[in-house]
Design goal:
With 463 residues, this protein is mostly beta strands. Helices cover 0% and strands 52% of the residues. Strand 11 and strand 12 form a beta hairpin. The relative contact order is 0.11.
Length: 463
C-alpha cells in the first residue's frame, strides 16, 4: 500500500538576508533502508528515486517515490532476487518516464565484479522488473553499471574498467525497440584510463570523464561519434570533483590541490564545436571542500563532501540563480540533522528545472539511517532586502494584487505560483499590479524579482 510520507509546506526560517534555509526531509515508510538512505538520487517529472547504502549486513536498496502537490508518496522498493550485499546494487540510478535503470557494478555475472544493470518499468502504476542487462564482452572487474543514464529511448551504461586495446573504460549505448533494450554501440577513447567513470548526456552531446579528469566529447548524428578531448581541466594545481552538462555548457567543480577549501565552479561554453572557458564562480565556504553539482537552466546547487577542521557539523548546499548572465547566491540550504553531527547533506544532488532532490545519507545519531530532501526552488522564501521594501495589497483579494515598491531596485519579474509550485501567471513589464481575476479561489505564492537578482515570496489568498 502506498503511504504518504510528508507534506511539504512553504514555511522556512531565514537567519540572514541571503543566509540559511532549512528544509524538511523524508525517508522510507516501510522496508527499512538499512542505512545511508540518500546515497544516490535521481528524478524525472514527478518520480523521485533514492538508493540506500551497501556495506556489512546492509544491502543496497532503491526506493521509488512520487511527488504530487508537495506530497511525497512511496511507490516501490527495488531489490533483485539474485543480488548480494557486495554487488552494490544502487551504486548508480537513472529514471526517465516509466523506466528506471539501476546499476550493480560489482555483480558477479559470469565473471567476478563484471557488473549488471536492472531495468524496471511502471506498468499499471506498479514498478516491475523487466530486464537484466550485461555487457556482451563482459570480463572480470569491468564494473559495468558504474554510471547509468536514460534519455528518451536511449540507455547509456559505463564500465570504467573495461579493457580496450590501448585504454580502459567504455560507455555502452542501448536502444529501446518497443519491448526491450538492445545493444547499439560501444564508446571509448584511446590512451585513457577509467573512461566513463562519469558521463553526462543531453540532446546530441555526450561528455565523459576519465581518471585523469580529462573530458571527452561525442556528438550524435546517426551514431555517436568522438569529437574532441579537453585535457587538464582547470590547471595542474586543481582537483576536479564533479561535472554536469546543461544547455551546451559544462560545469566543473574544482578545488585547489594545496588548499582544498578554495572551491570554484569552472563554466565552459560550447563555441564552434569547442569547449571554451566562459567564467569561474567562486563557491568557497569556510573550510568545506566542494563536491557535487547539479544545474538546470537558471538554477544551480552545489554540495560539499568534507571539511578540513575536525569539528563535526551539518553540511551545506549552496543555491545559485542565474540573473543577467551572472550566477548569484540565493541561500544556503541545510537539512534537519543535529547541529553538531555530520549528515553528508548534499552527497547526492539531482535537479530538473526548479525541482531538487538532495541526499543526506549520514543523517541520524548512532545509526546513519539517512534522509532525502525534495523541494521546488520557486517556493523558497529567499530575500536580500527587507520584507517591507515591497508592500503587496490588498491581501486577501478578489481581483488584483498591487505593488508598492519602496526599494532602490526595479521590479523586473512577477510570478504567481499555485501551492503545488505550478506557474499560473508571469509578468515582466514592470507593472504595478498582477491580475488574479481568472484564477480560482485559494492560496497562491507571488514571487517578486528585482534587477539586482534578489527576490521574495508573498503568500496570497484569493477569495
Amino acid at each position: 500500500m502506498k503511504r504518504k510520507l510528508l507534506v511539504f509546506t512553504t514555511l522556512f526560517y531565514m537567519l540572514t538576508a541571503v543566509g540559511q534555509t532549512n528544509l524538511s526531509g523524508f525517508f522510507p515508510s516501510n522496508n527499512n533502508s538499512g542505512a545511508n538512505f540518500g546515497t544516490k538520487t535521481a528524478l524525472h517529472d514527478n518520480t523521485y528515486v533514492v538508493s540506500s547504502g551497501f556495506f556489512f549486513t546492509n544491502p543496497g536498496k532503491v526506493f521509488v517515490f512520487s511527488k504530487v502537490n508537495q506530497v511525497i508518496t512511496q511507490e516501490a522498493v527495488l531489490y533483485p532476487s539474485d543480488a548480494v550485499i557486495s554487488d552494490q546494487f544502487g551504486q548508480s540510478i537513472a529514471v526517465f518516464g516509466d523506466y528506471i535503470a539501476v546499476g550493480s557494478a560489482f555483480h558477479d555475472e559470469g565473471f567476478t565484479d563484471a557488473g549488471a544493470v536492472y531495468i524496471y518499468k511502471k506498468v499499471d502504476n506498479v514498478w516491475t522488473f523487466t530486464q537484466k542487462i550485461t555487457a556482451f564482452d563482459a570480463a572480470e572487474g569491468d564494473n559495468f553499471g558504474s554510471h547509468v543514464k536514460i534519455q528518451g529511448t536511449s540507455l547509456f551504461i559505463s564500465a570504467p574498467n573495461n579493457q580496450n586495446s590501448n585504454s580502459s573504460g567504455s560507455v555502452y549505448v542501448y536502444s529501446f525497440n518497443g519491448t526491450s533494450w538492445t545493444y547499439q554501440q560501444k564508446l571509448n577513447v584511446g590512451l585513457t584510463s577509467e573512461f566513463g567513470r562519469k558521463f553526462e548526456i543531453q540532446g546530441n552531446l555526450l561528455v565523459a570523464i576519465d581518471s585523469s579528469d580529462n573530458l571527452h566529447t561525442f556528438t550524435f548524428n546517426t551514431t555517436w561519434t568522438y569529437i574532441d578531448s579537453n585535457y587538464n581541466i582547470g590547471n595542474l594545481q586543481t582537483l576536479t570533483k564533479d561535472f554536469i552538462l546543461d544547455n551546451e555548457r559544462i560545469y566543473v567543480t574544482s578545488v585547489n590541490g594545496f588548499n582544498q577549501s578554495e572551491s570554484s565552479v569552472l563554466i565552459y561554453n560550447r563555441v564552434n564545436n569547442n569547449w571554451v572557458n566562459e567564467s569561474v564562480l567562486d563557491v568557497s565556504f569556510n573550510d568545506f571542500v566542494l563536491g557535487k553539482i547539479a544545474v538546470s537552466g537558471s538554477n544551480m546547487i552545489v554540495g560539499y563532501e568534507q571539511y578540513l577542521l575536525q569539528t563535526e557539523r551539518k553540511f551545506p548546499v549552496k543555491y545559485y540563480k542565474k540573473v543577467s548572465n551572472n550566477w548569484i547566491l540565493q541561500t544556503t540550504l541545510y537539512g534537519e540533522g543535529a547541529f553538531a553531527n555530520d549528515d553528508e547533506f548534499g552527497k547526492s544532488l539531482s535537479i530538473q528545472d526548479a525541482e531538487i532532490l538532495i541526499g543526506a545519507p549520514d543523517e541520524g545519531i548512532a545509526i546513519s539511517t539517512g534522509k532525502a530532501y525534495a523541494y521546488n526552488l520557486n517556493l523558497l522564501n529567499v530575500s536580500a532586502f527587507e520584507k517591507n521594501s515591497i508592500r503587496v495589497y490588498p491581501n486577501p483579494t478578489v481581483d488584483k494584487i498591487l505593488f508598492d515598491n519602496q526599494s532602490l531596485n526595479q521590479v523586473i519579474l512577477c510570478e504567481l505560483y499555485s501551492s503545488s509550485g505550478k506557474v499560473i501567471t508571469v509578468s515582466s513589464d514592470n507593472s504595478s499590479f498582477i491580475s488574479l481575476e481568472n484564477v480560482y479561489s485559494g492560496v497562491y505564492f507571488l514571487k517578486i524579482t528585482l534587477d539586482n537578482g534578489t527576490f521574495e515570496i508573498h503568500k496570497i489568498i484569493k477569495n
